[in-house]
Specification:
The chain is of the alpha+beta class. It has 4 domains: 17-116, predicted glycosyltransferase like domains (Thrombin, subunit H), CATH 2.40.10.220; 176-280, Beta Barrel (Thrombin, subunit H); 283-386, no CATH class; 397-457, Orthogonal Bundle (Arc Repressor Mutant, subunit A). Helix content is 31%, strand content 28%.
Length: 458
């Protein structure tokens, strides 16, 4: 209207999108705090897509203490299963804001320990599960027997606390060593292909990258029969991480079958029978007697198909081939020639070979086995020449922001990826796993950044 000045148009910034990071288990929070939170980063599972450098809000919720905290963060890495974020609060201020959650977790764990001392229930000796000779001192805080022998684990998720038979059943169930294909489905809908290390009707230990499966997370487990292909989908909960050097290579899951208990018992019994038959026809022994390259070449020459499982410390790798073609090579989240090079680098451990192709091989690119071995040996040789003793796998890297901001020249794609993952609190080993390039290329990028003072070892 004439004579009335128009008001200036002010751009209103879009509100930051929100991510939800929830902890129901105080031990899971403690682990994440020590691993990532106190260093200023976190991995948040989500099915949504985010841009790098996007500023977001993270709702940090600790249900064990009834506390919620909203933190501002920046997305520094994105994957199919979620995003890695770096919090924008200075480290001292961030630790101060998280202090009440840390104290709440400590209180909850102490209270749970006190209750465990007063509330250990054991079923009657004359029930259907046989004699029970367990005393209160033989249990740790997780409810697992403290003197459990190697190869036998006890599920840590109790059933109905008022049903002593159910609790006795769970306490007595043995997890027998077994190699069965399994798919772990996360709440975001992502499916993680894995293999069991042991299995019982109450729980299992699986070789799978554990960073996306924090303790306390509820998941679904799809077991596959190795010969019939029959599948069974069962609810489960993550109860324990197996810690490796800078990585979580396996997780323990407690099955929560509910009304499916009889069906689960039947299916697991069939899996155990099929696995026992395959074990009888297999070959196993110490890895150092043959060596990885010679062993794989020998099996590929003598058998048309086969699955080789190699254990090295807390880690486990699998190689499957058929008709001269490599069907799968996998160590945790690493696949292909890069994974094969990892397996061939192991000098000690144990191997098991079975003359069948594990179902886990489906969906992986196929390569001629001899060519794949040669490529892996070339990668291994390059890794050995460029390896640096100053880069332990469990170490973390800290970004020197002042040096990065003052940098007057661009950095390479691999170096940029290293910076993003280092800012998110990833270990050297996880950085090597996440970035698709060969380990030698990644190590060279890390060394270059160290030499220029852009990052430093923590």
């Amino acid at each position: 209207m004439p004579g009335i000045p128009e008001e200036p148009v002010v751009a209103v910034p879009s509100p930051a999108r929100r991510l939800h990071l929830a902890f129901g288990d105080p031990k899971a929070f403690q682990q994440e705090y020590a691993r990532n939170l106190e260093r200023g980063g976190a991995f948040v599972a989500t099915a949504d897509t985010f841009e790098l450098r996007e500023v977001v809000e993270v709702l940090l919720e600790a249900s064990f203490g009834g506390e919620k905290l909203v933190l501002t963060a920046e997305v520094v890495h994105a994957s199919d299963g979620g995003v890695a974020v770096q919090f924008l609060d200075p480290a001292p201020e961030l630790r101060s804001r998280l202090e009440s959650l840390v104290e709440g977790a400590e209180r909850a764990i102490a209270e749970a320990a006190a209750e465990a001392d007063d509330d250990v229930v054991v079923g009657p000796a004359d029930d259907e599960f046989g004699d029970v000779d367990l005393d209160e001192d033989s249990f740790d805080l997780d409810g697992a027997a403290a003197d459990t022998p190697v190869g036998v684990a006890v599920a840590t998720q109790p059933g109905d606390d008022n049903d002593s038979n159910e609790r006795t059943f769970r306490a007595r169930a043995e997890r027998l060593p077994m190699r069965v294909a399994v798919r772990v489905k996360t709440p975001t809908g992502k499916g993680l292909a894995a293999r069991t290390r042991d299995l019982s009707p109450t729980g299992l230990l699986v070789s799978v990258e554990g960073e996306e499966l924090p303790v306390g997370r509820e998941v679904r487990v799809e077991l596959t029969h190795p010969t019939t292909g029959e599948k069974l989908d069962v609810p489960a909960k993550v109860t324990r991480h197996v810690q490796g050097e800078g990585v979580v290579p396996a997780v323990a899951l407690a099955l929560q079958p509910g009304a499916m208990r009889a069906e689960v018992e039947r299916f697991v019994a069939e899996l155990q029978k099929a696995d026992a038959e395959q074990q009888r026809g297999g070959i196993r022994g110490p890895l150092e007697e043959l060596g990885g390259p010679s062993m794989l070449q020998m099996f590929a020459a003598l058998s048309k198909q086969g699955t080789l499982t190699v254990s090295h410390g807390a880690e486990e790798g699998v190689v499957a081939f058929e008709n001269g073609m490599l069907r799968v090579a996998q160590v945790g989240s690493v696949t292909g020639v890069k994974a094969l090079a990892r397996i061939l680098s192991w000098r000690d451990g144990f191997f098991e070979f079975r003359s069948y192709v594990d179902p886990l091989g489906d969906g992986h690119p196929k390569l001629p086995i001899e060519a794949a071995i040669l490529d892996a040996l070339r990668v291994l040789d390059e890794n050995n020449r460029l390896s640096s003793p100053q880069l332990p796998a469990s170490a973390r890297l800290e970004v020197a922001r002042e040096r990065l901001d003052a940098l007057g020249q661009p950095i390479g794609k691999t170096e940029q990826a290293v910076l993003e993952l280092a800012a998110a609190g990833f270990t050297v080993r996880r950085i090597l796993d996440v970035i698709p390039e060969n380990d030698a290329t990644i190590r060279s990028a890390v060394t270059a950044l160290l030499d220029r003072g852009i990052i430093r070892l923590v």
